[in-house]
Every structure is written in C-alpha cells, then in structure tokens.
Specification:
By secondary structure, the protein is of the alpha+beta class. The protein has helices at residues 5-8, 11-20, 31-52, 79-85, 88-97, 125-129, 158-161, and strands at 22-25, 59-60, 63-64, 68-72, 102-112, 120-123, 137-142, 153-156, 170-171, 178-179, 188-189, 197-201, 205-208, 217-225, 242-246, 249-255. The chain is globular and about 50 Å long.
Amino acid sequence: MSSTVDYVISSEQREQYREEGYFILEGVVPDHHLTMLREECQHYIEKEDAELSRREDNQRGITHMGKRYFISDQHKQNERLKDYIFSDLMAEVCRATLGPEAYLFWEQYVVKGAEVGMKFSWHQDSGYVGYDHTPYMSCWCALDDMSEENGTVYVLPFSRAGTRTREDHVVEQGSNDKVGYFGDDPGVPVIVPAGSLAVFTSVTFHRSGANTTDQMRRVYLTQYSGSPIYTEDGSKLWGNAVRFVENNKRTEPVVL
C-alpha cells in the first residue's frame, strides 16, 4: 500500500471531514489485520464474560453481558493490536484528519450480542471526556458486514446537527449511556462491508441501533489526537498519548 495520504483518502473526503465531521473508507483494512482483530475480539469477550458472570447484575458501566461490550485499552499488553493501531493505514488517516502530528488517545472493542445486542444512544465521544478540549478523531473499523439490522452506526453531519462543538450530555437510566442529542434526525447509516472504516470527529454525534440478527456485530475503535489530551485541571493525561506520526512521517511509537 502506498504511504501517501492521497492513495486512500481523497481531497473530497478530507473536505467532508472538515465540513460535515466524517467520511467513509470501504474495504481498506488488510485481511491479515481483519483476521487478527476478530481473533483478539473473541479472546476478550470470553475474558469479559468470565468477569461479568461473577457480578450480580452481569453489568459493568455501559457493558452488559451478552448484549453489549466495551472492552478498552488492551494494547498495552497486546503486540498484535499495536500492529494495526500504528499501521501505515492508520498513519494515513491521522495525517488526513489531524495533520502532521498524531497520538493514540484510546482504543476499544464495541460489540453487540446476537439478537439481544443493545442500541447505543446519540452522543459525541467528547461528551464522555466531559469538558472542552481540542477535538480528536475516531476511526470505527467494521469487523463484520454492517447493516441497519445488526446495529450499525449512524452519524449526524454537522450541517444537520446544528453544532460542531461539544455539547453537555445527560446519563440515560438503565443503559448508563450519555446522551447529547434529542432531535428527531435519524442520521446517516453506515452500510459497509467488513474491513471498512467510518472516520469521524469527537464532536460528531453518532448512535447505533440494536442487533436483531443471529450473529454478533463487532467493531474495533481507535481514537487519535493531534496533541496530548490532559484532564481538565491539566494534572495528568486523560487517556493515552502515544506518538506515532511526527512531522508527517510514521515513526516508532513513543509513549509520553
């Protein structure tokens, strides 16, 4: 694969990211990375189920056993994940959206269980950070073919959301989701084959529907920032800050 941004990401897509907050890349993830991400996903689901089964309500935060999983920050112990997180493809996406410097901010699996996979409410990723900061970028990788039936993501373009800044969110009872959009726009469904990417800003509203199919719906989400993001008081990093793009060039990852 070419190491230049233009090989994968067009000027029109970069413009759409700036003006509407997202773009889609279909079928760009190499097969070996897709296979690896699926294998690691299954490993972490089994590990999470073992932990959740010991809890009376089978729930931890916004993870609900058998229904919806958010499994995050595993790259520190997993070299296979790093091979994808810091790949040429991710460097290209970062350069096209963030500019000449890029840091890994966060990563997580987002999985909806077969037939009972829960919806996820309208939110901005920055809504979970909870205070104003320079927006970062989310790279949503489909590990399965995505459809409205299996609970794909819906994005709300800036022009339809009426905002491009972080909004206050409230916690939804029962799901523990944070919700920041209360309008009736259904959003744009991301209907793509496995190995595709939905790339959006951390202030782009998005949601996902329930999974009504007989198969799991699996996603691996990586998030990158153009500079380190600190807690509101500036005392420590909010998440991660692993630099791997410097002066427009992909480099060996450096943990700050």
